[in-house]
Amino acid sequence: MTAMIEEGWTNCDGSGTAALRRAFGAFATGVTVVATWTPDGDTRAFTANSFSSVSLDPALVSVCLAKNSASLSFFESCETFSISILEASQRGVSAAFATREPAAKIAAVKDLAADDAPFVPRSLATFICSRHATVEAGDHVILIGQVQKYRAREGQPLGFFRGGYVSLGPDLIEMERLRASIVVGAILGHDGKVLLLRRPNSERWELPATQPGRGQRADRALHDLFAGLGIQMTMSVPYSLFQERDESDVTMVFSVESRHDIETGMLADGTEIALFGAEDAPWDLLAGEMKIGLVKRYLREMAAGLYSVYFDTPEGGSMVQLSGGPRAWSKSDEAMPPREVSPRPLLKSLGS
Question: What HEC string does the chain produce?
């Protein structure tokens, strides 16, 4: 019997690490947060999907940490550390300890619980480990821990596949099939351009968007998403509410801002970030009639300095123009000049 030959092999010659990372991403994993104390009593933690059980007797587990990590020396020398296996609703925790943004990590540390090592409360399982061994392996170090104690509870895991989070478990899948869900997205303008991203193994660019976890606020979900991209942002106003013809999800896009420089390029997980101006025709890079119209409208309005809110209607869509910027709720009782605003219809294909 002749074996089938598959074509398209890529040699590992030290180049093309982004493609190799995408190939590694074909292995679906869970997500963990590994944490320890420093000698000064501070907390160090990182997100890892390289967790593995090694042995039952003795009870050994392992995770991998990059050699260029600022926390490497603390985990190589610590006596005790924790590994928390995250639950499906803990995407924000994962993003906070995966980002390069110190403010996001500092905020997330405050939510950790304390024991022989700091750990993530309400996770699916937590292992308190003593450091058993460290093994150098290429550009990473394998941290092997001997489990001293552990606890576990029922729940759905947080999955990671091809550079993005996925829901695991038949009950969650059935729920997603039975009802439409809300996706929250963001449109961010910077120096006259709009920010788009491209996921690993995708030919199309897209607006930053995410599906909030169970019980998670839309604003928190967006902050976690941008923290994972290494971008500090503040939310402004809802910008567009629509549903693509071929999608079951309802999408709500917010206008967001960043007062800091935006670092473009490829992230560690293979996601690309770039800024596009009108001259780049970014709408040709997108999929979805509504999203294409949204980006076209945003670039026009950004150039004119006059923005509006779009929402789907049975008649084909309507817009309401905005006057001035958002105000704090505490100032909502201040006198405002009278002004009547009437929605004006707009074809869906022209300006979501």
Answer: CCCCCCCCCCCCCCCCHHHHHHHHCCCCEECEEEEEECCCCCEEEEEECCCEEEECCCCEEEEEEECCCCCHHHHHHCCEEEEEECECCCHHHHHHHHCCCHHHHHHHHCCCECCCCCECCCCCEEEEEEEEEEEEECCEEEEEEEEEEEEECCCCEEEEECCEEEECCHHHHHHHHHCCCEEEEEEEEECCEEEEEECCCCCCCECCEECCCCCCCHHHHHHHHHHHCCCCCEEEEEEEEECCCCCCCEEEEEEEECCCCCCCEECCCCCEEEEECHHHCHHHHCCCHHHHHHHHHHHHHHHHCCCEEEECCCCCCEEEECCCCCCCHHHCCCCCCCCCCCCEECCCCCCC
Q: Are residues 49 and 152 in the same domain?
A: yes
Whether 287 and 206 map to the same domain: the answer is yes
User: Are both 190 and 312 inside the same structural domain?
Assistant: yes
For 1-58, write each residue's pLDDT tens digit: 455 555 677 777 765 677 787 788 788 899 999 999 999 999 999 999 999 999 999 9
pLDDT digits (tens, 9 = 90+) for 283-300: 999 988 889 999 999 999
Domain hosting 220: range is: 180-324+337-345
User: For the segment 116-162, what is each residue's pLDDT rounded down to a tens digit?
Assistant: 999 999 999 999 999 999 999 988 999 999 999 999 988 888 888 87
